[in-house]
Write a structure and sequence with these properties.
Radius of gyration: 21 Å
Helix content: 40-55%
Oligomer: single chain
Distance between the termini: 36 Å
Order of helices and strands: EHEHEHEHEHEEHEHHHHHH
CATH topology of the largest domain: Rossmann fold
CATH architecture of the largest domain: 3-Layer(aba) Sandwich
CATH superfamily of the largest domain: NAD(P)-binding Rossmann-like Domain
Number of domains: 2
């Protein structure tokens, strides 16, 4: 059983750890969690996970290293663990936005396999959309990482040059869809529902709609056509939203987020 070190055990790292254990992909005692404030990992330690503030030691004990720190913290962490990395032993998985496989290898000065993964916050309930990419990792390791992240949702393999785009669409996208649901619930209040009723209705409508596309494997426009009738209320509402830039605003927001995601990491420091 391979040992896994999660460097920077915040929401994403802890959710992945729980998913790996829940699906019997790994045992808690084979997962090492690191965090600067060890008290925040106390409950995990009681469940059998190994916890430490020592990133170097965690890497030395592990076979798979998951980098889950903030982009601004990455260089310091790589300097800290560099001497513990062994090319033939370790596989590096990075969930850090805007940092290429090549940049991680260069900073470590190692000829090591690196795979990038971009999950989103729905990982907390096992419903993440995770995109993975590499610049040369083996098919065996790529398959292993795919299975790891399938414990917490769906996985799509993409080209590495699309990873910042995946960040905008899938990771930032959670906030975009939440804002749309929030706006729908506010519209519900405007037309007479109490806030809690409107939010419940908006959430279930959004969830049902997503499931409709996923289960039927249809295009959104196909389902839109089913609910729009000539001179009806749905097409009137859609056209009003489009006149006010609904689709174009969402597209522009995704494009801007992708641009921002590509600039979160700097090589200095």
């Amino acid at each position: 059983m391979k040992k896994i070190a999660i460097i920077g055990s915040g929401n994403i790292g802890l959710s992945l750890a729980k998913g790996l254990v829940k699906t019997n992909f790994a045992k808690a005692e084979n997962i090492i969690l690191t965090r600067r404030n060890l008290a925040q990992l106390a409950s995990y330690a009681s469940e059998g996970y190994k916890t430490t503030v020592d990133n170097h030691q965690a890497v030395a004990e592990a076979d798979i290293v998951i980098l889950a720190v903030l982009p601004q913290q990455l260089n310091a962490v790589l300097d800290e663990i560099k001497s513990a990395i062994v090319d033939e032993k370790h596989l590096i998985i990075s969930v850090i936005s805007g940092v290429s496989c090549a940049e991680i290898k260069s900073k470590l000065n190692k000829n090591i396999e690196v795979i990038r993964a971009m999950p989103n916050t729905a990982i907390a309930i096992g419903q993440s959309m995770t995109c993975i990419a590499t610049d040369g990792a083996s098919a065996e390791n790529l398959n292993h990482v795919t299975k790891m992240f399938e414990t917490v949702g769906l996985v799509s393999k993409i080209q590495e040059d699309l990873m910042t785009s995946a960040t905008a669409l899938c990771a930032c996208g959670v906030a975009f869809f939440l804002r749309a649901i929030r706006a729908a619930s506010q519209g519900g209040v405007e037309i007479g529902f109490h806030a809690d009723e409107a939010l419940k209705m908006a959430i279930q409508t959004a969830k049902g709609t997503a499931d409709l596309l996923f289960i039927n494997q249809t295009h959104p426009e196909t389902e839109i056509d089913k609910v729009t009738s000539p001179k009806g209320c749905t097409i009137a509402g859609l056209n009003e939203m489009e006149h006010n830039g609904f689709s174009s605003s969402l597209i522009k927001g995704i494009k801007l987020s992708a641009l921002k995601a590509g600039n979160l990491y700097t090589k200095e420091g």
